[in-house]
Structure formats: C-alpha cells, structure tokens
Specification:
The chain is of the alpha/beta class. It is built from 15 helices and 13 strands.
Length: about 375
C-alpha cells in the first residue's frame, strides 16, 4: 500500500558547506514545487547554508549555534527535541542524510511512536565508518527504515555488505542544476584568486579523505607547475600540515589556499582543470559541478562514485588512489587532450529526474533500485 507524502520532514546535521546538505536543500525546493509541505530540521542551527533554505520551507533549528556542541554531545542534546518535533509535525515521511544523523533519526522516530515512513540516505563509503560499533549500529537501526537510498552503486554494495537486501536499497544519484551553477558563477572572482589565472583547482575539505598531500606532490612534478597555479578551496584540520608540505615542495608562489567559500563556482568555472585526489567518497558532487560548468576533470578511482560519474574514464581520467606520479601524468594528459561529452552526464543527473525518484520512494513507490 502506498500513500502520498504530503508532509515531508528532511533532517540534516547542520547547514554547513557540505555536499549532502546542499543536495537535501535542493530536494526541499523541488518537493515544495511539487506541492508538498516541507520541513527541514537541523541538529545544529546557523551555518552558511541557512540562506539557501528555500522560501516556503519551514526550518527547525534544534540546538542554538551558540551552544556549539558536536559529536555525541550534539546528538544527546538534540535527540529529545527531534523526537518532540516528529510528534508535533507528524510528517508522512522523514528523510535524513549522513550516517550519524540517520542513526539518531531512527531512534527519534522510535521514541516519537507515530506512524511515519522513514527513508535514510547513505552518502559515503563505509571506509569512512571505521568504528565497529557504528557499523553494528547501522546493521541494527537501519533495518527499521522503510527504504535506504545509496548515492552510488558502490555505496549500495557497502549496504549489501551490512546484510541489507537489494529490495530495500535504492540507488538515486545526486542532482546537478547546471543553470543554477552558471547563475552562481556569474560573480566576480574573489580577491584570493584574482590575477592568478590560468590555474588548476581542487575543492574540498582539508581532511584525510581528500588526500591533498598526493595532489601537492603530483602538482610539484607536473608540467602544469610552470604554466598554471594550483588553487585549493576548502578548510579543515589538515591545513597547517598542507601549508608546511607546500613550503617543503617549493610551491609557496604557485599554490593558493583560499579557505572555505560559500560560493566557489566562479573559481571553478574559470579553472582550466579540476582535480579530485580523494581516498574515498560517496558520490562527489564537485565532479558533476565541474562537468556542468564545462571544466575538464581528473580523479582518483576511489570508492565510491568517480568511476560511475566519469563512465569508467570516458569523461575524465581516473588514476589509482595515492599515486602522485599517475595523478601528475593524468593532469598533464587531460590538459593536453581534454575529455568531452559532458552533456550526457549532466542530463542524467537533472534535478527534476532525481526529485521525482525521491518523491516516488517517499510516497512508497519502488524506484527499481536505481535512478
């Protein structure tokens, strides 16, 4: 039996600059346009994406940003508020994203004790979930969900490895709105990048997962070192180590760390090449965004997503994870002979198609395991 989800609650950890957060806010706008009542709950209030919450969406900020707890402390404090919100709003369907938030949402729905359809979106490789306890919690709590969304075939395989059957897993890839990206790119270049062209760019948090040390080493031996600067957009705990490595490699006058940007799309659109050096992903939006803006890409063949997005290397070169020499060679090769045919990839990730697949699942209709 299926029932239209006229009232939908989306749950996010925060409104920071994450790919998952951007995707769910984009979906919120699409659900609203489809005539649904949409609520967005964030565990921690504030954040740079607060202004991106679509007009007409009801925003619930469970914990004030000034309190600034994180991890288990945030979950502990937000849990009773989330359960109360679910009881009060009485959504027909709850959709959440990010593993930690998903686990909390399952518990909150159990405590709320109301009848609601629950869909969990898993967006990262299990490589990112190193805790045995957390994996066991996923096995136990995810089985209470009515549907599991995997953002890539690789993530779906990870979920199967936890014991979930194919019929419960639905692959729905992330949307990319090329028209919106071009609108966001129609601004002036920030001062950090102005007069730095031509350049190669890489966008992502400065964390272990993104493996910027391999990118720096690859760039240091690339022919691009002499012709293009390297712009790294993002912030994170590894920034100091990366700046030290940059100095050790003699790249101080060639590499620019801009920090995080609310709108990095002009920087991306003006780049000669985008490079993703990650050790693991779920389904990296930045590759889709680069292709939508007509920017050639090179990526590591990491779990999961790049191989699926790039058609096994047809739409951009793929290299082994952590191999600086191979990455350097691929960067030079892609610059000399860029891949083409991006339009097909962008069309396959249209926001309308993705939103329709989500709504079908939220309404209780099977999407046949894939988008």
């Amino acid at each position: 039996m299926t029932a239209r989800a006229d009232r939908i609650l989306l749950v996010l950890p925060s409104l920071e600059r994450g790919g998952g957060e951007r995707v769910l806010l984009q979906l919120a706008g699409s659900f609203l346009a489809a005539g649904r009542e949409v609520h967005v709950a964030v565990l921690l209030g504030g954040g740079p994406l607060r202004s991106a919450v679509p007009d007409g969406v009801t925003l619930h900020e469970l914990i004030d940003a000034g309190d600034a707890p994180n991890g288990l402390a945030l979950a502990w404090k937000a849990f009773p508020k989330l359960a109360l919100l679910i009881r009060t709003v009485k959504p027909h369907t709850v959709l959440s994203t990010m593993t930690g938030t998903n686990l909390l949402v399952v518990l909150a729905c159990m405590r709320a004790r109301i009848r609601t359809r629950l869909v969990l979106r898993e967006a990262s490789s299990l490589v990112n979930t190193k805790s045995v306890l957390k994996r066991q919690a996923m096995r136990w709590l995810y089985r209470h969900a009515d549907g599991l969304v995997a953002v890539s075939e690789g993530v779906a395989q990870d979920l199967r490895g936890l014991g979930f059957a194919n019929g419960r897993i639905h692959v729905i890839r992330n949307p990319v709105d090329a028209e919106r990206l071009w609108q966001l790119a129609a601004v002036g270049l920030p001062s950090e990048v102005r007069d730095k062209a031509p350049y190669v760019v890489s966008i992502g948090r400065l964390t272990e997962a993104k493996d910027f040390p391999t990118l720096l080493r690859a760039y240091a031996t690339s022919a691009l070192r002499g012709s293009h600067r390297l712009i790294i957009v993002g912030e994170g705990e590894q920034r100091m180590n990366l700046e030290n490595l940059m100095r050790d490699l003699g790249l101080t006058d060639r590499v620019v760390f801009t920090g995080a940007m609310d709108n990095p799309y002009r920087v991306l659109a003006d780049a000669s090449l985008h490079v993703l050096s990650s050790r693991w992903e779920g389904y990296p939006n930045v590759l889709l965004e680069a292709l939508a803006l007509g920017v050639p890409v090179v990526s590591t063949d990491c779990p999961h997503g790049p191989r699926e997005i790039l058609g096994g290397g047809r739409y951009g070169r793929l290299v082994p994870v952590g191999d600086a020499a191979a990455l350097s060679h691929a960067m030079d090769g892609e610059m000399a002979r860029p891949s083409f045919g991006f339009e097909a990839i962008v069309a396959a990730h249209s926001p309308g198609t993705v939103a329709s697949n989500y709504l079908a699942l939220l309404d209780g209709v099977s999407v046949s395991g894939r988008d």
